[in-house]
Amino acid sequence: MSLADRAAPPPQDAARPWSMRGGLASFGGAATALLRTLDEVFAAWGTGRGAEPLTLPVLLPAAALAELDYFRNFPHLGSLVSRIRPDRLDHYSGAGDAPAIPAGDLSDAAHVLPSAACYAGYLHLAGTSLDRPATLVTMASPCFRNEDRHDGLRRLWGFTMREIVCLGSGEAVQAHLDEHHRLITAFAGRLDIALDRAPATDPFFRKGGARALMQRLAPVKEEYLGPDGTAVASLNHHRNFFGERCGIRHAGRPAFTGCVAFGLERWLHILDLRFAGDLGAAREAVVRAARDL
């Protein structure tokens, strides 16, 4: 199969402003413009309230994530990054097509592609002491989750997440989440999109794991679901977990943290439905809605 054949979108997507293959999406101009506008709107919700914008690595050290219980809770989600072993390089440089690289030809994976944008932020702030009641940061990142199935823009292997994170007192974190509940609800209302707020039901924690049980008993993640059930945003209260594990302190104690997360491709999906495929009209509506908040 040629490179062109591998890259070509499925026939049914040929007339769409995006194409998908294997849980990975490519976007044309109109879709890209809408994605960028959405990100600008959500980022401004953070920076407008004093959040520092961060640019962070996409690759995360596996050792650092292990200290955050990542592999204990999310072994099913991780996309690991490796390289061909030095002693196997000659084999591939002289070979033809290699549709898949056997695991035995790879070095141990020391890095992971993130499944959420905020991990890099907590690692960036590790070992710091915060003197304000609330410290806000915002970041966007390509994120990757090994899903058991793909479903258009609703459930991708690779997608884009914008997050706004609050670190500080428990009261400040809760106020941060409450304010973004108001913003998300008002924004969707101006777009004439009904969102339901519900405890997370997606298999974010591995079934049977200790944190999956804790989440059922005391929910720490709430989602905003579009008319077809697509989760487009979430509120996440981590209590003082990241403060303890990353050594981020506030007022002499491990900081409380909480984040608001937006899946940009999922917003594109529900806007595409709401505006019957007219992404230009959708983008104009997003600009108006954000201006009127």
Chart the SSEs and their pairings:
Elements: H1 3-7, E1 18-21, E2 24-27, H2 29-47, E3 52-53, E4 60-61, H3 62-67, H4 70-73, E5 79-81, H5 89-93, E6 111-113, H6 118-124, E7 129-130, E8 134-144, E9 158-168, H7 170-190, E10 196-199, H8 210-217, E11 221-225, E12 231-239, H9 241-246, E13 249-250, E14 253-254, E15 256-263, H10 264-274, H11 279-292
Parallel strand pairs: 3-8, 7-13
Antiparallel strand pairs: 1-2, 4-6, 5-6, 8-9, 9-15, 10-11, 11-12, 12-15, 13-14
Characteristic terms for this protein:
single chain, alpha+beta, BirA Bifunctional Protein, domain 2, 36% helix, disordered N terminus, seven-stranded mixed sheet, 293 residues, three-stranded antiparallel sheet
Account of the protein in words:
By secondary structure, the protein is an alpha+beta fold. Helix content is 36%, strand content 25%. The chain has a single domain, classed as BirA Bifunctional Protein, domain 2, CATH 3.30.930. The protein has helices at residues 3-7, 29-47, 62-67, 70-73, 89-93, 118-124, 170-190, 210-217, 241-246, 264-274, 279-292; strands spanning 18-21, 24-27, 52-53, 60-61, 79-81, 111-113, 129-130, 134-144, 158-168, 196-199, 221-225, 231-239, 249-250, 253-254, 256-263. Helix 2 (29-47) packs across helix 10 (264-274) and helix 2 (29-47) runs parallel beside helix 11 (279-292).
Domain count: the total is 1
Query: Count the strands?
Result: 15
Shape: flat
Helix-strand pattern = HEEHEEHHEHEHEEEHEHEEHEEEHH
How far do the termini sit from each other?
Answer: 51 Å
Give the helix/strand class: alpha+beta
How helix-rich are the residues, as a percent range? 25-40%
The CATH superfamily is known as: Bira Bifunctional Protein, Domain 2
The profile of the biggest β sheet is: 7 strands, mixed
Low-confidence stretches: 1-14, 213-219
Mean pLDDT across every amino acid position:
90
Integer-rounded radius of gyration: 20 Å
Report the sheet-strand fraction. 15-25%
CATH level 1 name: Alpha Beta
Alpha plus pi helix count = 11
